[in-house]
Specification:
Layout lengths: L12 E9 L1 H11 L3 H4 L1 H5 L10 H15 L25 E8 L6
Antiparallel strand pairs: 1-2
Length: 110
């Protein structure tokens, strides 16, 4: 864990713990916050570009935030706010998928 931003060096990498998301988790989140067919209905989702049920990007972002808060790669609470970066979706997150968050220091300005 990095205690101070002065300790950060370009190229440093950080990794959180993991979380597994169930089909029920995906549907429950989508029903309340992102009710689109590919998040709610397995059969409808098969006919989309995703090819199957997939977690909402908002669900994935909420999980990533929880993992980041738990792993605290940038020291004590409050420091992480200044370290926020652009989020990129590298792949869909389907039922029973297990994922983690990873951080890389890519620039020296905030």
């Amino acid at each position: 864990m990095v205690e101070w931003f002065d300790d950060l060096k370009l190229g440093m990498h950080f990794r959180s713990g993991e979380v597994t998301v169930s089909k029920e988790d995906i549907i429950r989140f989508a029903a309340e916050y992102d009710p689109q067919p590919f998040h709610l209905d397995e059969e409808a989702a098969k006919k989309t570009i995703l090819g199957g049920l997939a977690a909402s990007g908002w669900h994935t972002a909420a999980i990533a935030m929880r993992l980041a808060a738990s792993s605290r790669p940038f020291g004590p609470p409050g420091n992480g706010d200044a370290a926020s970066t652009v989020t990129q979706w590298f792949c869909e997150f389907g039922a029973s998928a297990t994922g983690h968050t990873a951080y890389a220091l890519c620039c020296d300005t905030i």
